[in-house]
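hey can u check if this looks right to u? its 187 residues, i copy pasted from the old doc so theres a chance i mangled smth
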Amino acid sequence: MSQNQNGKDGTSNSRNEEDLEQLLSQGITFHEELNPTDTQVTASQRVDDEEDTTLPAQEHLQLALAIFAEAAQDMATAAVELSLGRHFACADFCNQVAEKSVQAVSVLRFGRRTAYDHDLHALGSAVGAPKEIQDEMAILTPFHPETFYADTPPEEADEVINAEQASTYIQHARTVMRWARNIVLHA
């Protein structure tokens, strides 16, 4: 790279520092670069975003894949929790797997996450999941901590769910995840 205006050696770092110094010293403002029509479009877009909170179409798949990746990580964590004998934690992660898997589908279908009140069956219904998937999700609904701890003290949580039950919750979560995977990964 050739030598820069102030005589520095021209490395990438020094070039970035020079660019930053130039921007700071010249006091560049962003309003000067926008014309009035750009400002009007931006303002109307903000109103639309506040009402709908949808993402631009090009970001739908990226966000859906990111949410689905979180579901996959939660699935692995559920298996670890089961192996450690933390059965409620396993069930809670299964609940999260179902929710995140279906939210990934929601982002693809509607451009946003679907609001819900921890009722996974209702969430599945809202995104158009088949009845079988909604039923799988309904089984996992009680394991949202807010719901579960309403009737069970935290110190008793792992005693209420046994290993066999926790293992079946993993199977339910996997079923939901497989359904979502076929939609998200083939988009």
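The mean pLDDT is 80.
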